[in-house]
């Protein structure tokens, strides 16, 4: 007999209440007895049991469900209603009870799955999860429910399938499950299997669902995913369009540009902003002025819009109708900043047939009048800035940076002089003179400025831009007299002026300043069409000295005869023995005038390089060619010193009769009686030198041999000969024979200190090839002398190829004495030099190098960043700590490189703060959100970042994390100058609700910013409403 037919079961209400209460007991025996008692109680217990399904005690709910299940078909209609209309706990309890009815419950649940009411379908899916024991039929019904159009039904079906330990039979079922559970990462990995499901969701889903679909589509590399995203970009809901724009940017496909560009016209500002960011991420550049103007407006780059002038007017005028008041105001400000161009465009808009544009133009006129009136009145100093003030200031700063300073302003000059601590009396006198219209007075003022020393140089530098040549020349000469190094690049630039007097002054002053970087510019003046300019440039090269010789040597090879003659003139004034050998080379020139200039130069050397000249004459007499010998005899014959005549005597025994005759004629022309003893002495000396030179040539020839035996024997003879062979060996390094060069370099190192000193000298005066070989091999000798020599190369060598090798050699030594020089070279103008220095700093392992290596990440060059990363890896844990600290500051690109460096160093974050800063650098906002509350403090630091994308990303992440800790940074963002950032912060605070009100009320009470106060008051009203 059914329980409900029992007439003798008349337990009172109190007993039933007690039994239901006992279902929650921790004593399982008591629970069991209570369940039996309630089952026997029959119909009177039904209503209390149904009510108990909503109990706060899970054990009571579970026990009640079991008892109700025992009631069978009589309770089933009521239970089926409860899974539709009941609260969550009631629905679950009713479903459990239905689950005990077995196949009896199956048919009504199948009917419920077809019901138009989604709650019926959701309840059926819930109950089926407790009927899994009936086999595949239940699984099929639930898998079918995964395709329901309602999110809640699909989710419940997925949960029920989990409840019965279901596993997807294929990729399509798996995709349905991921879609139902919002597992977007797994769904994206399903690829094409997900597309059909997502397509259906676009047609039937709500706003939240469509936003999630957009996120998934961006991760699926299929053609159809792009088509669907474009469709979402046209959705009626702006939140969906924003998500689609973001997703298209993440997809990184250039084919979507046209659709994103179209989105720049969206009537909702944050959709436009998202489209602009996505265009940035895909490398898009505007193809016309209209696109550029829309993009700049969306990115709030108002100053650049001002520079576009007429080209930006159509977009600016159209934006006067924008739904966002701040956009309208800022567009008006840009038009105002354009002056007459902007005013004319607004006047045209006033005549428009479009009533909305006409009204907007009228509002713009009123706003401009108000702003102009304020500009003419005295504003309070402490007046807080409004968003339109921000744009006005931005435009002013841009204009100021572009505007040329008025050098005629007395106040301008006075401000500079006072900044340099010039006494007030002089300030008044000089500022008046410098601003005088009379160029003579301004020129005279330069002399007074020069008397001030360093305090006057800033004013003199500004005078280089004076419109009058006389003033410029006075300034150039003064800066030369004062030897102002920082003036060198400006003077060098002026050396190209069309006025020859300015060019002459520049050439002269550069010789006084002696800045090595100006040497190529001075050499360039050797071809000037004005003799005075060439003469000054030549003199300046001589003044700068030996470091110019490599540049002059190149000038000897120029096709222009004028350049070669001027170069000879320059080298004749350089007091370095190398100058003599370079000049002898020019005795072979094809042009007579060049050879004559070389002879004159050799004669001039006798005044200050007499002994080296005599040595070179003796060398030429033995090893010189016909042209060199005749030229040297001619030069020597012009020298009055008797020793020069003795040197000519060395040519008198030459095998060439013409040379012998020329030498004898030169000797006779002096009308001096030749000393026979001296002549005999010279002949013997010449023969000894010949023999020695012949032996050296034979040894060097042996070193070049391909026969190892000959090579080894020659090397032994080098060590037997001693120091005499060092200089010829170093000179032989200039040959383009790498194998021979390496052998010679190794031998020189083995010869010890004299050879090392020779290499150091070659490092300063040799050809580029010799310098490179010297730098390579000196790095193998980590002594003070060699380290210092290589460091000097980084400081003063003009050829970047030599600096590169020197930096690499210092790295090879791993010597910490080189760290300062390598740090200096890390800022070299040549990228390869910087890279070599940065790499070598890593080899040093010195902690002192860490700041320099981290600073290298500020460069745009990816190779430099990779090299710096490798060097930091060599230094180890100290570098890791510094990187973790550095990632907290700097711009986005800099932080990202640091993050990559930390990746390369296999860094493992130890704190949530560290991982948050790392993820910020990677812009991985999703992962940051998962960290939760601890991430809010680092994110809060970004709310005043100069980059709008960074601010928005931070505010968006804080909003998603939520909680009371998110309120302060979100409250700070409500007055952000970017509309998008403000909107994000406002929406998040509204969602947080009442807990945000006290913070906003505090802003209202304490802020002096009326705009911020207004925003806060509006937010409070929205929250309370």
UniProtKB/TrEMBL annotation:
Molecular function via GO: oxidoreductase activity
Keywords: Membrane, Transmembrane, Transmembrane helix
Gene3D superfamilies, per the entry: Leucine-rich Repeat Variant
Region (Disordered): 367-406
Keyword Metal-binding: no
Family matches, as InterPro entries: ARM-like, ARM-type_fold, HEAT_type_2, PBS_lyase_HEAT
Pfam families the record matches: HEAT_2
Membrane-crossing segments per the record: 124-146
Protein origin, superkingdom: Archaea
Basic and acidic residues composition-biased segments: 371-396
Functional note: Catalyzes the hydroxylation of the N(6)-(4-aminobutyl)-L-lysine intermediate produced by deoxyhypusine synthase/DHPS on a critical lysine of the eukaryotic translation initiation factor 5A/eIF-5A. This is the second step of the post-translational modification of that lysine into an unusual amino acid residue named hypusine. Hypusination is unique to mature eIF-5A factor and is essential for its function.
Record protein name field: PBS lyase
The organism of origin for this protein: Methanochimaera problematica
